[in-house]
Amino acid sequence: MTQKEQDKQEMAEIRDIVNKYGWFVGFFDADTATPSFGYTIGLWEKYKHPEIITFGLPVEVIQEILNAAAAKVKEGHPLVLDQDDYDILEELPVRFRTVYADNVEDYMGYAQRYYNGKSFPAVQLFWTDGAQHYPWDKACDEAIAFSQPLLDQKLDFKFFEPRHVATFTSRQIVKDKQPVLYVYHDEEDGAWQFLPGTAVAEEDIMMVSLEEMVQLDPTLNELFNLPMGEIAVRRFAGDKWERMEAGEEE
Fold it and tell me: Which domain of life is it from (predicted)?
């Protein structure tokens, strides 16, 4: 079966479920670059309600709470924004916020294909830490906050790592403003390498923060979900990144 045929079959299966139940829930396990997440498909088509996405919980819980939220929509109870909702998680509140349109394509690829590339609205379901702090609260547990990106706003930094984490780069990139053409997310320790397309002498190696690299080249945000053990290469600044397992480029 070709990739095109497989994609067509997957979309047909999703459509069958949407037609039968009113929505479909797609969910994805955490990997070495991104937390687990899931989202609905079909709510916009069937009920003119934004699709729902959430992050950072076990996938079986994600499926359960998205189904619970979608059921409310089906029953004629639109999800209210920026108010605590106790109907989704037992004894704990959740809140819904509108997803900034530019962030949809980063996570909701199957939904985009389902809607044939046409835009659709989405809301993000946020949950709290044990002290009922949301990820935007300064007092929120750091691990909880990192697992829930704030998709309700334009993001200048998309990586699920601290902004200050050290990365390896070179003088040619930082001082001479050469473009980053080779990126490696180390399989052993998760360190990032942002390098030019040519060999780098030992004396030219530099260490800067991940945030500094993104500020130097905002297109590096496109690699926020590059798993450990993979590389990304391009021919010139602005070119499309090609991803592969480390070693495949040789």
Answer: Bacteria
